[in-house]
Amino acid sequence: MRSARRNLGAQLLMILVVLIGLGFGYSFAREVVQAQHLAGQAEAARQENERIAAENRKLQRDLQYYQSDAYAELRARTDLNMRRPDEQVILPVLPPGETTITAPDSDMAAAQAAPVSASAVASVPGAATGRNWDRWLALFAGPAR
């Protein structure tokens, strides 16, 4: 009877050791999963920080450009139609009744566009039909003779 009790005590002790081992194993597995989850969160936060830092660098460059003299000059030229004091602006003056063909609106094209009379445009073949390239040719080459 004594040996049966001893075997029962040994078995209970073995079961207790196995249960404690399973508890430690479960705790370890839970810690590993939590560590992986935290590592994923840290990586996502690092990527978000890099994105925000890149956006901040871009905004700093934009701010420097918007505070520069080049930007102020560009805005003055485009929005306020201003020029430098040493520049000459040529404005064509035509007799009443004549039409002009001008280049698309740009600083250089608007300042240097030469007027073309309606009779000169009409003398260009295809201009009456409205072919765009004929109009451009008349603008830059003058009337065809």
Description:
By secondary structure, this protein is mainly alpha-helical. It has 5 helices and no strands. The longest helix is centred in the first third of the chain and has 65 residues.
Mean pLDDT: 79
- How does the overall form come out from the CA principal axes? rod-shaped
Multimeric state: single chain
Helicity range of the residues?
A: 55-70%
Based on CA atoms alone, the radius of gyration comes out at 42 Å
Largest sheet: none
Q: Whole-Å distance between the termini?
A: 134 Å
Number of DSSP strand runs: 0
List descriptors.
5 helices; mainly alpha; 145 residues
Q: How would you summarize this macromolecular structure in one to three sentences?
A:
Helices cover 66% and strands 0% of the residues.
